[in-house]
Amino acid sequence: MIPTRNDRITTSQTAVIIINFILGAGILTLPRISVEKAKTPDVWISVLIGGLLAMFTGIIIVKLSQRFPDKTFFEYSQEIAGEWVGRILSLLIICYFCLTSSLQVRSMAEVTTFYLLEKTPTWAIVMVFLWVALYLVVGGINCLARMLEIILPITVLFFLVVSLMSIKIFEIDHLRPVLGLGWKPVFDGIKPTALAYTGFEIMMILVVYMRQPNKAVKAVVVGISASLIFYLITVVMVIGAFSIDGVVTRTWPTIDLIRSFEITGLLFERFESLLLVLWIMQIFSTFTLAYYSAALGLAQLLKKNIEPFLFGLLPVIYIITMTPKEINGVFALGDFVGNASIFLFGILPLLLLIISRLKVGKHEAKSSS
Amino acid sequence: MESIAPFTDDYLSNLNLIRQEIGQNADVHIREFSFGQTAIRASIIFVDGLSDRDLIDNTILKTLMNDSVAVMVQENSSGDVSGSKEFFINHVLSIHEILECRDVYDLRTKVLTGFTALLIEGAANALLLNTVKVKTRNIDEPVSESLVRGPRVGFTETLSENTALLRRHGENGDLLFLKFQVGERAKKELIIAYMKEIANPALVEEVKNRITKIKIDHVPESGYVEQFIEDNYLSPFPQVQSTERPDRVISALLEGRVAILLDGTPFALIVPVTFSMLLQSPEDYYERWIPSTFIRLLRFFTAFASLLIPALYISFISFHQGLIPTELAISIIGTRQGVPFPALLEALIMEVSIEIMREAGLRLPKPIGPAIGIVGGLIIGQAAVQAGIVSPIMVIVVAVTAISSFAIPSYNLGISLRLIRFLVMFSAAMFGLYGVILFFLLLTSHLVKLKSFGVPYVTPAVPYRLSDWKDFMVRMPLMMMKRRPKMLHTKEPTRKG
Amino acid sequence: MKQSHHRERLLLLTSLSVFLLFLLTGCWSSQDIDKMGMGIGLALDVGNKSNVEKKLEKQGKSPPHVDTITMTYQFINPKATSKESSSAGPQQKAYLNASQTGESILPIIREFSLSHDAPLFSPHLKIIVISEALLRTHRLESLLDLFLRDNEIRPSCLVLVCNGNARHVLETKKPGELPALKLLGIVDNRSRTAKILPPVSLAKLTAKLNSESSFLLQNVAASDKEVKFEGAAVINGKTKKWAGFLNEMDLEGITWITGKGKGGLVRSLDKETGQLIIYEIETMESKITPHVDGNKISFDVHINSKGRLSENWVLNANPFENEFLKRVEKAAELEVRQLVKSVTAKMQKNLHADVAGFGERLRIEYPKTWEKVKKDWDQTFSTVPITYFVKLTMTDFGASGPSK
């Protein structure tokens, strides 16, 4: 199953994929979730530290993957941890990808029904979304990469322009004092912010597909720093507009930020729906990636062609998506996925890396003696 | 089929054979004569109109019926005319191309393309003299692609003329023409043109491959070829570029692309093509880079506009009324008072009627064309508004969209965008902006999957390559565009100089 | 290659047919703009049924409602905005006001559906006016809860208080004028006068309602279908109810303390001649510096402003002489100092509320201290010493020089 050279992706594409996978539905709630925990305006420091942490774990994953340049996680995990443990780990990660993708769709559907299409049933919104996604992923990783490269500049540019427009209601006082209550709240805020960076785990799969796998670290660093800047701007602008007292009361603070101002004299005075639909593209990219990864994992686990799994996973994802009954269920699912990712991508790769090093060390020791 | 009947020594039976085969055609002329004063009989067979009569009268008949020639023939062959063939070819007939043929089928195909057959008593094979009269029209400015600045030269229906145009404009020893024949029943000449030192050999191979796979009776126009060689016949997007302009072909060849010319049509095909190439015009390069860049950006905008504006109108009117500025919303409410239809139907009525008007304007004789413009634009637009069927804003929307779609340099891309526009309108009517964005995603998904001869359709937008971006939305100064497009994997990556 | 095409076709066809299927059943949320009642303004008053309502109720024999709030909704009048009607006949009012009485906001809004064919539609709601009387009895956050929660009403909507009947604010005599948009336009006049507060949108209110600090809302007075921005209402940080009134002069003082003014005038009397001099503000800056010494909190306020001499009634004045300008500056400074002093006294003595942002500065500079005092800040504030330093600079005196 080694991909042909033509089917490989460039380093910049890899970075784009990482950014796209990180920036998903999370950004819509990040300011609230982090402020809820930290309760000070210093959340932006937590965002910074969280990003650095994510970068560190991302690099570990890359180092691990680089030890097996022609295998994805689903294949090399069996090599490191033994066949059965490896399979179980792979299965866990596949489940994780399924859950993430469902979570993305569901958050998208929630926001869409609330702000855009009040009376449209959720199943309709979700279903068309899934269809379009299926049409894309059938094309394979390369089409996916090209698609993401088209989506990213559009969404990022628009998001930045719009959030910078909110400078009108930005008040620097809402961000002060810096470290007024010391470092403790900052550390409290790290967990939710670090979780916002989940997405770099795609490198477990992606390194194989890179034309220059040795540049994977660079891609991760670029990808995570870009997301970091993005998150930083969002958090700063949202808190600057609402102050921490206001942020905690908004369910979707980032959208409300855009709803809170009007620029008169343009073709549009209001940008939230525009931003929202563009952000749907971003969610689409996160979703398709997770969806593809899950299908790829199953295909590699069972050593079969990927396409039947793409088709087969669709109903599964649909069912998971429709499972949470109410919005708090969605947020709970989000928490669950977040906690799972701490184990799967924070601790596990480090363990595997150590084990594989030890194994090689043993092997070398044997051969030398 | 009958068994092949080769010519024999018997002049009369040969002539009969020919009469049987093509003699019943009204336009086939058979002229019998004798060499000078001698008794050696001969005949020429030609098709009226296809062959050059001047040439036949003054060069062939005059020489052959001349006494001195007859004497020379007799002297030279000492009675045996069959051996004098070489003599005829080498000393008598001043025709640039002479072929021999041994059977009547060979003769038939050639004569029907304008050759003149010469049958001489005692000779077992006929001579085919190239008297093909090439009737060409003048080289005009291409109708479908007119420019303000640029050569006023377009291809014609004659293949040799077209290749000559390319040679003249190309002035390059690299330029290679490969001849193919397409059409099973009615054969037509087709030429693949490329630059030997630049074009990617794999690409040329692929083009040859697809050309030889064309299996059809007849290929009347290069559109047939296009439909046979395109990658995905389900796609609404043109995957082959067609042009009437030699300068466009030459610059494409120099980029490393391959051109396909077909006899009988002024439209040459260029492969591979990408989305952004279809939005480019040769003028982009003839004008200075700053206005060119501006115009190019404008074209990208028009592509989006012609696709999305009616859909956006529908979603704003029917779904996201909160998005439009308050003042505008107030005036829209006022103008829509009394319009009985929902926005989708309103848009459909206007869009369909403007498509009808466009089509009608195309078919009408030139003097009536402008009249349709007046009827359509003024009367229908104005009257529809006053009758309360549509709102004035809808008329503006439709007008802007239509004009945008005409501003797209590639005619066939314009058509497909207009077609897709209706689909976007439907999805907008279902899901508002969400539908528009999902349709956009579907369309983009389709585009990223689409390839034209191995080149992804969305290049050079992605993957990000700085050197290809110099000629994408922005047209950088010519001095800065030193490299040929990387996406084409050319043999020679840099432009010389 | 061929196979994948085949599959693609299958996929394409299926998705297309699904799309068509949607078309048959779809358009769930579609509603054309002209079929809706577009609301642009809203006024909340103490429950008081109109005569029509009373009559209708009698006819319907409906059980008595609880009538605590009367809501007046301002719609666009589509007939007046369309072209045909404007050219012929007397001009209609551009708006329609409809009042309804009920217990809380949403039930009232839904009550409208019983008497209006066009569904209410509020993304363009620009302004919410609440009457002072209603605010005395109801918490602001309960009144606004729906608007903050709702997905249609945008957080950019502004909130005003009216010390009379709020519904009168939404009326005008001029045909073609929309009262709600007019109010919005007045808010933009802050570059001309210091007597208008920075606009308070729902977005800004979210934070204010969630903190314990008191704050101001612009007050607007209405009489005889005319409106005027007049002073400000003080909302208590704890009770979230109306707690007092600041008049125009006080408001000017607040603007000086916060330094957030964009323009305005200072009227002062020349010390020597007793004649009027008008100083026009060009820039305004203020810096509130808290000092914490043990348990003692005090504030220094530095106010700086640059401006020009705009109107001068003093005879024999020569602005070319710096001496005269200094004299004018002194007079204006005195005036400003009086303004801020009086409003400070009012805040500390009468209202017992900090509405000028002193607490905010303390929070930023001394977060630890703030944590301790924030619970009872309004009381603490009442006793805090505040020192003002006012410095006005006359940079310009217009086109004319000395007067005779």
Q: Average pLDDT across residues of chain B?
A: 85
Structural class by helix and strand composition of chain B: alpha+beta
Class by alpha and beta content of chain C: alpha/beta
Tell me the span between the first and last alpha carbons of chain C: 97 Å
Give helix % range of chain C.
25-40%
Lateral arrangement of strands in the main beta sheet of chain B: 1-2-4-5-3
Biggest sheet record of chain C: 9 strands, mixed
Average pLDDT taken over every residue of chain C: 82
Number of domains of chain C: 2
For the record, the count of structural domains of chain B works out to: 3
Radius of gyration of chain B: 31 Å
Question: Biggest interface, and residues per chain?
Answer: A-C, 39 and 34 residues
What fraction of the residues of chain C are assigned to beta strands by DSSP? 25-35%
Number of helices of chain C: 15
Low-confidence stretches of chain C: 85-89
Quaternary form: heterotrimer
Domain Spore germination protein N-terminal (chain C): 30-219
Subcellular location (chain C): Membrane
Main location (chain C): membrane
Membrane topology (chain C): Lipid-anchor
Structure description:
The complex is a heterotrimer of chains A (369), B (497) and C (404). In chain A, 54% of the residues are buried. In chain A, α5 packs across α6 (122-137) and α5 runs antiparallel to α13. Chain A contains 15 helices and no strands. Chain A has 369 residues and is an all-alpha fold. Chain A starts with 10 loop residues before the first helix and ends with a helix. Chain B has 497 residues and is α+β, with helices and mostly antiparallel strands. Chain B has three domains: 11-129, no CATH class; 159-273, no CATH class; 286-456, no CATH class. Chain B contains 19 helices and twelve strands. In chain B, the strands form three sheets. A five-stranded antiparallel β-sheet of chain B has the order 1-2-4-5-3, covered by helices on one side. A five-stranded antiparallel β-sheet of chain B has the order 6-7-9-10-8, with helices on both faces. In chain B, strands 11-12 form a two-stranded antiparallel ribbon. In chain B, α1 (11-23) crosses α5 and α6 crosses α9. The radius of gyration of chain B is 31 Å and the shape is elongated. In chain B, 42% of the residues are buried. The model of chain B has no long low-confidence stretch (mean pLDDT 85). In chain C, strands 1, 2, 3, 4, 5, 6, 7, 8 and 9 form a nine-stranded mixed β-sheet that branches. In chain C, strands 10-11-12-13 form a four-stranded mixed β-sheet, with helices on both faces. The model of chain C is unreliable at 85-89 (pLDDT under 50). Chain C is globular, with a radius of gyration of 28 Å. Chain C has helices spanning 2-25, 51-60, 78-81, 83-87, 105-112, 132-137, 140-149, 166-169, 179-187, 202-210, 248-258, 322-351, 358-365, 367-373, 377-381, and strands spanning 37-46, 69-76, 95-102, 120-121, 127-131, 158-162, 215-223, 226-235, 242-246, 265-269, 276-293, 296-312, 386-396. Chain C has two domains: 33-246, no CATH class; 250-396, Nutrient germinant receptor protein C, domain 3 (GMP Synthetase, Chain A, domain 3, 2-Layer Sandwich), CATH 3.30.300.210. Chain C is 37% helix and 28% strand. By secondary structure, chain C is α/β, with parallel strands linked by helices. Chain C starts with a helix and ends in an 8-residue tail after the last strand. The A-B interface holds A 9-10, 12-13, 112, 116-117, 120, 124-125, 128-129, 132, 135-136, 139, 143, 145-147, 149-151, 264, 266-270, 273-274, 276-278, 280-281, 284 and B 319-320, 322-326, 431-438, 440-442, 444-446, 448-449, 456, 458, 461-464. Chain B: Belongs to the GerABKA family. Chain B: Pfam families: GerA (PF03323). Chain B: This is Membrane protein YndD. Chain B: Keywords: Membrane, Transmembrane, Transmembrane helix. Chain B: The chain crosses the membrane at residues 258-279, 300-319, 368-387, 393-415, 422-443.
